[in-house]
């Protein structure tokens, strides 16, 4: 059993045993398990702990395997009229680690997917004139590119129509330009997903926590 010393609602000693309390007040005849009222006279209170895994509460004797503890701060629970410390349990089992890593990998892929890329624009009237333009690939921009591709494939894109690239660059685009840009976008996005797939497979095949966390985005 752990006790704390609290003075003016400030925890001054966060972890005390009954033996330490007896040494602090040697002139007091302490019972084996002192009552709350006796302790309170000396600003000593029993510290209650709650071990939480999600919404489930565990006692120390009931702890599931492969968990670690993340110890929180000590606070006063006014509803229960006691001082308590919530200890969050972290499930470190391999399957949980793999799921967490694949979720982190998906976030990593998404950030790359929507970050855009540089594409070489070639002037339709003079192929010797090229320019590096930045193509947006956020989800909204992908929809715009797909819509423009549909117009180009159906012969409805007016050659020379203007397209705005990143950093304020405008280019007059032919239908073939639109098709070429769309194919570049598809290739870029697909590469992101293929990379995620390969790394997710690596995570699935891991036989340890260290292996599951060892993936690196190229």
Strand-residue proportion: 25-35%
The dominant shape is elongated
Report the uncertain regions: none
Report the C-alpha radius of gyration, rounded: 31 Å
Domains counted in the coordinates: how many?
2
Oligomeric status: single chain
Count every beta strand, where a strand is a DSSP E run of 2 or more residues: 10
What is the fold's blueprint, element by element?
Layout: E1 3-7, E2 10-16, H1 18-24, H2 36-40, E3 44-53, E4 56-58, E5 67-77, E6 82-91, H3 94-113, E7 117-122, E8 130-135, H4 139-153, E9 161-164, E10 170-173, H5 175-204, H6 209-212
Parallel strand pairs: 3-6
Antiparallel strand pairs: 1-2, 1-3, 3-4, 5-6, 7-8, 9-10
What does this structure look like?
This protein has 218 residues and is of the alpha+beta class. It contains six helices and ten strands. Strands 1, 2, 3, 4, 5 and 6 form a six-stranded mixed beta sheet that branches. A hairpin with a 2-residue loop joins β3 (44-53) and β4 (56-58). The radius of gyration is 31 Å and the shape is elongated.
What descriptors fit this protein?
218 residues; alpha+beta; 2 domains; 37% helix
Question: What would a concise description of this structure say?
Answer:
The chain has 218 residues and is α+β, with helices and mostly antiparallel strands. The protein has six helices and ten strands, in the order E-E-H-H-E-E-E-E-H-E-E-H-E-E-H-H. The radius of gyration is 31 Å and the shape is elongated.
């Amino acid at each position: 059993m752990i006790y704390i010393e609290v003075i003016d609602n400030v925890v001054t000693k966060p972890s005390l045993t009954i033996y330490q309390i007896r040494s602090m007040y040697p002139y007091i005849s302490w019972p084996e398990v002192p009552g709350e009222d006796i302790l309170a006279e000396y600003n000593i209170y029993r510290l209650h702990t709650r071990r939480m895994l999600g919404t489930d509460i565990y006692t120390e004797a009931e702890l599931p395997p492969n968990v670690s503890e993340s110890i929180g701060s000590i606070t006063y629970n006014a509803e229960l009229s006691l001082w308590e410390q919530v200890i969050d349990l972290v499930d470190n089992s391999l399957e949980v680690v793999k799921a967490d890593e694949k979720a982190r990998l998906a976030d990593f892929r998404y950030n790359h997917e929507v970050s855009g890329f540089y594409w070489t624009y070639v002037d339709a009237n003079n192929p010797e004139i090229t320019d590096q333009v930045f193509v947006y690939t956020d989800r909204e921009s992908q929809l715009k590119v797909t819509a423009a591709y549909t117009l180009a494939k159906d012969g409805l894109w007016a050659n020379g129509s203007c397209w705005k690239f990143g950093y304020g660059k405008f280019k007059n685009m032919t239908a073939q330009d639109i098709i070429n840009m769309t194919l570049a976008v598809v290739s870029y996005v697909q590469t992101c997903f293929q990379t995620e797939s390969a790394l997710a497979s690596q995570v699935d095949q891991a036989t340890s926590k260290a292996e599951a966390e060892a993936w690196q985005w190229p």
